Amino acid sequence: MTGAEAATKSAEEKIAEKGLPVDETYSPAPEVLRGSYVYSEEMFNEMYQRSLDDPDAFWTEMSRQIDWIRPYSQVHYENFTNGDVRWFLNGKLNACENCVDRWAATYPSRPAILWEGDEPGTDKVITYKELLDNVCRMSNMLLSLGVKKGDRVTIYMPMIPELPMMMLACARI
């Protein structure tokens, strides 16, 4: 098989060649479902249909789960002729505050990151408080180096817990 032939194979074909099932689904354990925001396929389908039928109402409802620095004035704007689609016009939020701070304030000792290394036994559990502390430290380090809002930061790191921490530190600025 040539490289071009291998590149044109679908993911399903590649999985089937290895003798692995392609069409199996695995349902989460009932205790996991009970704590989930979307706990059934029916609920997902209902939410999806609402998002299609009345996107403004649906996304207005969803946006109430986010802490806004400045509320948006319009849910969305679309001009497909010009390729211009915008969401939550004039709204302002801080992704880091929504992903970390609000959860650290409410659930400081809950796991925020469960990391499994490549080697057995190299796992880490990082709580929301630990995550917030590390993100703030990294953000302050970036600020001390002169990084400011609007700057582009390149992150070249392996898949370790510090990678999402650094991404959140950038979002914090």
Automatic annotation (TrEMBL):
One of its GO terms (biological process) is acetyl-CoA biosynthetic process. Its EC number is 6.2.1.1. Residues 1-21 are annotated as: Disordered. GO terms for molecular function: acetate-CoA ligase activity. Residues 45-99 form the Acetyl-coenzyme A synthetase N-terminal domain. This is acetate--CoA ligase. Residues 101-173 form the AMP-dependent synthetase/ligase domain. Signal peptide: none annotated. PANTHER family: ACETYL-COENZYME A SYNTHETASE, ACETYL-COENZYME A SYNTHETASE 1. Residues 10-21 have a biased composition (Basic and acidic residues). Belongs to the ATP-dependent AMP-binding enzyme family. It comes from Perkinsus olseni (Perkinsus atlanticus). It comes from the Eukaryota.
